[in-house]
Structures are given as structure tokens and as C-alpha cells.
What we know:
Distance between the termini: 72 Å
Largest sheet: 12 strands, mixed
CATH superfamily of the largest domain: P-loop containing nucleotide triphosphate hydrolases
CATH class of the largest domain: Alpha Beta
Helix content: 25-40%
Radius of gyration: 31 Å
Structural class: alpha/beta
Number of strands: 23
Amino acid sequence: MKNIQAEIGEIVSVSGNTITVKLSDTVKSNMPIIDGIVYRIGQIGSFLKVPLGYANLYGIVTQIGAAAIPENIKELAEQDYTKLDNRQWLNMVLVGEQIGRKFDRGVSQSPTTGDIVHLVTISDLDIIYGGYDDSNSINVGNISISESLNAKIDLNKMISRHCAILGSTGSGKSNSVGVILKAIAQKDFKSSRILVIDPHGEYNSVLSGQSNVYSINENKISGVKELLIPYWALPFEELLSTFSGKLNDQNKDYFRAKLIEEKLKSVRENSIDIDEVLVTADTPVPFSLKQLWFDLDNFERMTLQENRDLGSVCEPTTKGDPERLISNEYPVTGLGNSAPFLNHERKGILSFLDSVRARIKDSRYKFLFAPGLYAPELTGKVVEDLSNLLFDWLGSKAPVTILDLSGVPSEIMSSISGTLLKIIYDALFWGQNIKMGGKEQPLLIVLEEAHNYLKSGENSISSRAVQSIAKEGRKYGVGLLLVTQRPSELDETVLSQCGTVVALRMNNSKDRSHIRSAIQDELHTMVDLLPSLRTGEAIISGEGVKIPSRVQFHKLSNAPRGSDPIVSEKWMDDNDSTINDYEKLVSLWRNQKLEED
């Protein structure tokens, strides 16, 4: 009797993976009641079942009504409308198969015409959404069609095969990321490693007690640590891009050669274990940028006692100081053919060197050019090396490390974020065969607002670094979690490498078309549901879930800081501000701080 109640129609057409179903005339209502539970027939994204002996095939409804009527029947109806005796049709796409109590994606057999189609009941849904191993899955919310069913994601496949969370502003992206990170942090993993690149400082409050936060706007009161990124770890081209001055190709080679000389001195000074032949301008070896600047600046300014004789340099009239970035001053050149003489070997790069000095002195770049114990002395000697930096970021007992880049100047955001990724990925790549490598201790990298530094067609270091991780990271234990509100601006190669796609509400048709290209062809009609999703609701498809699912994410009690303020509540508060409050505001602004010490 129960089976008869669940029957809704029969298959009239099978085309590859797409099944056309003609609903039965005996179905009296689109909302039948089975065992006291009300079901809806034909909801887009809902499931139907086709029993085939010992197996049950499951499909997702993609069309219903006139759009689902086969073309040959439409042609028949145009000739004689009365022959279209039943206008209740639907299309579904096969997605999985149940044998016994086990459900798997994909099907081993296809149905044929005349096979009966059934509603999927609560007991069927338990089989579809159950079966996850608690040790390698996380619970992120509930299935939208049944709040009693937990929505789970396979952690192994989500991380190793990359994941993208896509949605418009206000759709619940930050909450969804917070839910996933919190679910992982609360698992009994002793060596989990998650690194969040956070350009807006949104997640500092979400994982309180389970994360280490490094911020350029250091706040000792709240336990936030200072984010330091040593300039000498930047590749040569990215270091040059941080300065406003420009060099022609010849002078760029000159600057590169001098920089390598400084790095070689540092190799000896710090007793670094490296073959000197392998040292290039890109090798992450400490060197004193101040000393390099001083030497180059001095060469441009010096005057000579004997014309064209570099061995007869005049004594400086005022002694400079490389530590304080003060130039040597030399006697003014004589008139005509009299001493002192100009240095005709100079390169004409004083304007570039002035931009270097200005950038080193700029307080906004202190995190880069005055990186604490990572800052080399004038000899190149350092107190702490990259091993200390990587240990702080990746070796902590806390499962999550958040790198808050909200204080990074926008003009170098791409270079800095790309350098961070390159430092981390290169370290794990070359260390793949030791305990701390990615193979033995995998790493998940979360890229918030990925479209800001991963633009399509852009050949920046951040784009190249993310592409390398997307294409090769899974082999070395590095997974990506991309978060963006503009998938149309992302590099398509990277998006196509994301095995799991979490699509929240998306209103822009151009962005939806990119999501459509990232999921399997038969489910493209489900993308049309995206504008109507509720806040925090998503369609999850791909490797991380057994079956494409419409999911309502949990709501975090301590929402990410980027969540919208409730205007009506805030405006109800008394306005008791004084001039002192605005003086404090200006002081924080001038000092580039978010809170007072």
C-alpha cells in the first residue's frame, strides 16, 4: 500500500542521463500525504526514485510542466490539442544508485520506458544523506527539504580536490566559511592546519580560542599577533613592484646583480646551508635593503679626484648613515676640466633610489621593511629566519591561523598575498617528503575575497601562485577554499579545478553563467534557482557531497565581523558621543590602529 501511495508516474523517454516522466492521472494532488507526512511533487531540486529490482535509482527534478513535454508530443498536440490528454510532465537527471542501505553517486544501469517513478520519502532521504563517516565529514547545516536531516560534507574530498564558495554580497558567504572552519576546528584533529588569507579581518571573532590571528594592526589586548612579512622573501620582480620608481631593463639587471651580491654576503654571514651557485635574486635569503640602497646611492653621488678613476673617490663632506637612510654628501664638481670630477660610470637611478628610501620610511610598509626580528642588520645578519615564520603560521597547536591583511596598502595587496602563498606552497612542495610537508600534514588555504587578487587574465604573482596550487596542490597535500562574490572575475582555470562548489544566492546573470560552467551539464537548470535562495542557503554540488544538495547553513552566534550591522537597532541607541570620541577616532586613523593599546 505504501508503494502504491508513493507512485507518481512512469518513464516515457530516456535520453542519456535525462529522464522524462509522465505523471499518472491517478495522482489527485501535488501534495500527497504518506504516513502522516506531506510531500510536494515536482519541486525543482527535489528527488524521485526509480525502483529496478534490487536497486533504486535516484534523480533530481530539473523541469516540470509544459517545458518538460517531449518535442514529438508537442508537435502532435499542435495538430490535435485533444491528444495531449495529460499535461503533467517532468524531467529529472539521474544522480545516484542505492543497493541495500548503501547509496553511491553514479548509476550502473539505466531505466527504460514504462518503469514506475516514486516519490522519495523521509526513509529514502536518510539513506541518501546518511552513510558519511563521522571521522572524515563535517556537519554544516540541514537539508532544506527536511530540517531533520543534517547536511554533511566529505572533508577529504572537499580539501584535497579544492572547493569554491560563491555568492552575492549579503548571501551568507562569510557565515558559511565560518561554519565550515568552526566545524573542522571542533573535530578531534591533533594536527589540522588551516591558513586563512583574510583581506578584511572578518574572521578574528569567529574562531576565538581556536585560532592564531596575525594582523598588521597589532592589538596586544585582544591577543592578536603582529603580522610580519620580510621583504627579502619576495621574488625580485615583486620587490621591485613595491617601489613607485621605475628602472629600464639595463638598470634592472644592474640592480639584480648588486642584490645577489648582498645575498651572497648574507649567506656567509648567517652560515646558510646553500650552494652559492644556486643563489638568485628570487632566492629567499636575507639581505640588508638599507645597505644595498646606501651603496647604490653612494655610487651615484660620489665625485672623483681624478677623471674617470674610480680609485680616486673624494672624501665625503658629510658622512651618511645607511641605518638612518642618510646619503653621503660629496664636494661639488669643478668647472670645466678641473677636479672634483663626476662619476661617469653612474647609472642615473637616483630617482628610483629616492622612491626606495621613501617606501622604506613609509609607516604603512613597516610590516614589510621593518619586520622585527626578521629585519637583517647592515651586514645581513638576522635573528630569526623563514623557519621561525613558517613555524608560527603552520606549526601552532591551534588548528586555524588567520593572516589579517586589512592593513596592507591596496596597491601591493596582490604582491603581498601572492608572496605569502608562494612562500607557503614552495616550502611545502620542497618539504613534501618530511614530516612537516603537505603530504604528511595537509594544509587548507582559505582565500577570502579571491577576486581581489586572482583576476582572470592577470599574470600577477598571486594568480600564478593560486594556479599552481589549484593544478598541482592536491599531489602535495595543499587544498584551496576560494571565497568570492564575483566568480566572473576569477580565472576560469582555477574555478574549473574546484571539485566542490557551494553556490549561495547569486543575482548577477554573468556570475551565474560561470557557476553553470563549473557544475555538471545536466544540473544547469538548478543554477536558475540561485536568485531565489534564502540568506545562508546554498546549492552544494561536486566531490564533497554524495548528491547535489540544497542546504541551509547553520547560523553562527558570533558572526564574522563583515556581517551587516542592523541599522534600525543601531540608530535606536542614544547618541552620547563627545569631541573626545572624535579625537580618539582621528588618533586611531593617524596611527593606523583599530583599537587603543
